[in-house]
Amino acid sequence: xxxxxxxxxxxxxxHIAEQYVQQIxxxxxxxHYIATAKITDEExxxxxxxxxxxxxxxxxxxxxxxxxxxxxxxxxxxDKNDVILLDCLTNLLANELFADEFWHKEDxxxxxxxxxxxxxxxxxxxxKALIIVSNEVFYNGVPEDAGTYHFMKxxxxxxxxxxxxxxxxxxxxxxxxxxxxxxxKE
Amino acid sequence: MHFIVGGAFxxxxxxxxxxxxxxxxxxxxxCSGYETEFFLPHHKxxxxxxxxxxxxxxxxxxxxxxxxSCRNEWREAFRLWQLxxxxxxxxxxxxxxxxxSQGIVPINEEERNxxxxxxxxxxxxxxxxxxxxxxxxxxxxxxx
Lengths: 186, 144
What we know:
The structure holds 2 protein chains of 2 kinds. By secondary structure, chain A is an alpha/beta fold. Chain A has a single domain (about 1-180), classed as P-loop containing nucleotide triphosphate hydrolases (Rossmann fold), CATH 3.40.50. Chain A has helices spanning about 15-25, 40-55, 90-95, 105-125, 145-165; strands at about 1-5, 30-35, 60-65, 80-85, 130-135, 170-175, 175-180. Chain A is globular, with a radius of gyration of 16 Å. Chain A starts with a strand and ends with a strand. By secondary structure, chain B is of the alpha/beta class. Chain B has a single domain (about 1-140), classed as Rossmann fold (3-Layer(aba) Sandwich). Chain B is about 40% helix and about 20% strand. Chain B is built from 4 helices and 6 strands, in the order E-H-E-E-H-H-E-H-E-E. The interface of A and B includes residues 4, 138, 163, 164 and 180 of A. Chain A: InterPro entries: CobU/CobP (IPR003203), P-loop_NTPase (IPR027417). Chain A: Pfam families: CobU. Chain A: Belongs to the CobU/CobP family. Chain A: Keywords: ATP-binding, Cobalamin biosynthesis, GTP-binding, Kinase, Nucleotide-binding, Nucleotidyltransferase, Transferase.
């Protein structure tokens, strides 16, 4: 099962995602947290500490994976007793796209986005549930500089592909989950 | 008229192509602001479906006048296309616009004016359209 949750900054996405994990996890399951942030400055370090602190007070015990890039390398390490929270797609894509000099080439960006999509699809298939957190960054027009343009285009593409694949798609606004898509059981 | 709005890279174009089944055989004009100029209805047109994509870019190009005349110009353009559509039952005018209203207020005056005029124009257009859809991640939500 795949649940996609997107929202603006401070919209409560992560909190909503953690609640979903809690609902889905049953007695013999394990909760996993795939963290994608790279520590780039003091603010980022504090932010990561705050998220870790919140998780440590959570009723669930989390196994944390630090995976700022190369998501595909861990996809086969999960099974049907694992509930995974991927937080967040935005970081993962940025880390992959800007890891080398080819971010100004669309075909290179597309290859990286496709690799992320394939990893997500496999994770969703292998696990009991995969909850993906991402960001809404699309309301300021089409950007002119090549880096932002490619980043937004690839993120938009991934959002569309993941939502199409997902069983549930949620837009978080002010801490309130707005359900945009819900697959009814056949 | 039908207005399709939503953030950048949300699949608006793809949705329109699928919904109206627009392919090479279908008689339509696809006029993209990212590639070409805007135009008003004229007598030489034989197509029944007109799509204007990148409305925010068409609007941006008309910002050389003051913003009030700009708004009036667009209201008139929407009205002319509405009249054209109403002349024949099979005609349909489709507008695709990127929502640029939810970022930080730009410091640059021209950028600010662009956002303002685009917001006003979208409101005018919504009044004149009989259908409005908002696209998010490829999913359409009908607003009108």
